[in-house]
Automatic annotation (TrEMBL), chains A, B:
Domain Pyridoxamine kinase/Phosphomethylpyrimidine kinase, residue spans: 120-249
Family: Belongs to the pyridoxine kinase family.
GO molecular function per UniProt: ATP binding; pyridoxal kinase activity
Organism whose genome encodes this protein: Lachnellula cervina
Name by which UniProt lists this protein: pyridoxal kinase
Top-level taxon: Eukaryota
GO (cellular component) term, any one: cytosol
Pfam families recorded: Phos_pyr_kin
One annotated GO biological process: pyridoxal 5'-phosphate salvage
Keyword Transferase: yes
PANTHER family, A to Z: PYRIDOXAL KINASE
InterPro entries reported for this sequence: PM/HMP-P_kinase-1 (IPR013749), PyrdxlKinase (IPR004625), Ribokinase-like (IPR029056)
Length: 353, 353
């Protein structure tokens, strides 16, 4: 395979997120690193925690890095002139102090790139909670708010978008309002809100993902993609999403002459919402994810059938084993399904919202 | 890509080694994990250290995991029934206590596999030193000696083989003696000694790698492969070598009916040295490595030319920068040269020694 087999030019990425030992547990950096490497990125993985397995198992062992350790590792890179990053991806951070530490890293990289607009791009996944519930300490929220103005693309889920914008999303109108607030208040260039589920009547269950790139008057350009839901809980999908968005946005931007050297890769005002590079990127990302997750669901069901035939009725102990087996069976099948990552077949198209 | 595009059946690997943040620094688990994943393994990466960069830069920041942390992470996997490993790869360990902790993990996995011979296989890289010099504490040596009897394949370099066998290798005779000692004294099924450099007269510089699989009378079956040297110091080549050996040995063994269910995958006595699966595996591994390193050398030279044209004569400070730039330029070019990993073209064949 030559360079042309990779969707993007050579790209050095600093990825700051959690590390989980159990291999098939592709979450955090374990997920993001492999996805980005497979697509041709050089990835510096700065691990904020080392856990035995992801928390979906209900029990876990391991350690968290302190904010000082995170800053120290970055300083180590700088000391040896190894901080030549084109992009940064930040995911789960174990507390407000580490959020601040990562903000300092991002600002340092951004500052270095001042004279070359577009030469550094930060994808921030503000991991804080889901389904109406915070799963980080409360002081993490204001810490993230202080970072927003330096991010180039943020990837909150519905709950995180509500938390950051202060707008409760209940319909299309409030969704637009949340996005407008984030653009206007924090001047965030690109926003994608994932896992949007609005009360609908009757229709088959579906999830929406909505994106927007800021216009020069700070107004949004909003598009959305609807995808069918797969009835299963998977871990690490947020991390896969973030890693793929990073690669595919760089690809879409590099396909448009001159855009890569504009600040934050923001398209001119005459580009409509559904024609944005962000929309092209999201289409490919969702195609990859749908392929991988459909395959995972298939294997998961096979594995659970086997488990149910083998283990039967041992009361409480077997209930715990069942839950653990379900977590294990639903681990995303990544390594052997790389074709979906490398060659996504776009089926769901961006539409105006 | 379907399953048949991968050289081996589904394989869960526990990889215990160091983690280095700087992406293009492919050393330790950073190297081994990507190589094994690319070739279709599910890899559980248990990181024994997290350093900003490899020690070749002469300066480094980061932390070491304690032996208790290592044991704890493994216990976390066991608690959730996530310890179904087919193979284990152990590399750099930060001290005697962690060597012991890893021995305990290996014995636990081995014990679980007692009733199914060949269902667990441990590749042990006894990282201790090189070129006549230990770079670990002295008590690491006896700690490793205690593990040897449980390993299935060990991958010492010449100095480590001397240290473990007590035989100084100066010619073919002493080389054979060292291998015989390791087979007989510790009953190690498979041995590969890397970076063997014996005093020769006149000939072009070359490196030898020598392997052996034990026969039923504990005698060795020795073969060797000579490869041309590439005049440059690369970091992480030992880890790439170990990861590739793990995959390619499993592949070679799975091509021989029934061998995978024999204890430690040891071939019958009628299989000659150069016909061993270990020899087939080594041929492919060296082909991959030669491809990757030749490409790396090419890029390294280009990069250093650029550096030398840019940075000229600033005394002491520039000498330090030069050394750092040399380390960076020699980082193994892995991600974008994956074809050499996936499709090695064998050029150097195993020969009798």
């Amino acid at each position: 395979m030559s360079d042309s087999d990779f969707p993007i030019p050579e790209t050095n990425v600093l990825a700051v997120a959690s590390h989980v030992v159990y291999g098939p547990s592709y979450v955090g950096n374990t997920m993001a690193t492999f996805v980005m490497q497979l697509l041709g990125c050089e990835v510096a993985a700065l691990n904020t925690v080392q856990f035995s397995n992801h928390t979906g198992y209900g029990q876990v062992k391991g350690t968290r890095a302190t904010a000082t350790e995170i800053s120290d590792l970055y300083q180590g890179l700088k000391d040896s002139y190894l901080d030549d990053f084109d992009m940064m991806l930040s995911g789960y951070l174990p507390g407000a102090a580490s959020v601040e530490a990562v903000g300092t890293i991002a600002r340092d990289l951004k500052y270095k790139a001042t004279m070359k607009p577009g030469s550094f791009f930060w994808v921030l996944d503000p991991v804080m909670g889901d389904n109406g519930r915070l799963y980080v300490a409360e002081d993490v929220v204001p810490a993230y708010k202080l970072l927003l103005k330096d991010a180039d693309l943020i990837l909150p889920n519905q709950f995180e978008a509500e938390t950051l914008s202060g707008v409760k999303i209940v319909d299309i109108e409030t969704l637009k309002q949340a996005i407008s607030t984030l653009h206007e208040q924090y001047r965030i260039p690109h926003i994608v809100i994932t896992s949007i589920s609005l009360p609908t009547s009757g229709a088959a269950p579906s999830l929406s993902i909505v994106g927007s790139t800021i216009a020069s008057d700070a107004k949004p350009r909003i598009f959305g993609i609807k995808i069918p839901t797969i009835d299963c809980y998977f871990s690490g999908t947020g991390d896969m999403f973030a890693a793929l968005m990073l690669v595919r946005l760089r690809e879409a931007v590099s396909n448009i002459e001159g855009l890569m050297s504009k600040p934050s890769w923001v398209s001119d005002d005459d580009v409509e919402a559904t024609e944005l590079p962000l929309a092209r990127a999201l289409e490919k990302v969702l195609a990859s994810m749908h392929g991988i997750l459909a395959k995972t669901k298939e294997k998961r069901d096979e594995e659970m059938d086997k488990f149910n035939n083998r283990v039967k009725g041992f009361g409480e102990e077997s209930e715990k084993r069942l839950k653990l087996a379900q977590s294990k069976a639903a681990e995303v099948r990544l390594v052997r399904n790389e074709q979906y990552l490398k060659h996504p077949e776009v089926r769901f198209r961006a539409e105006n919202v």
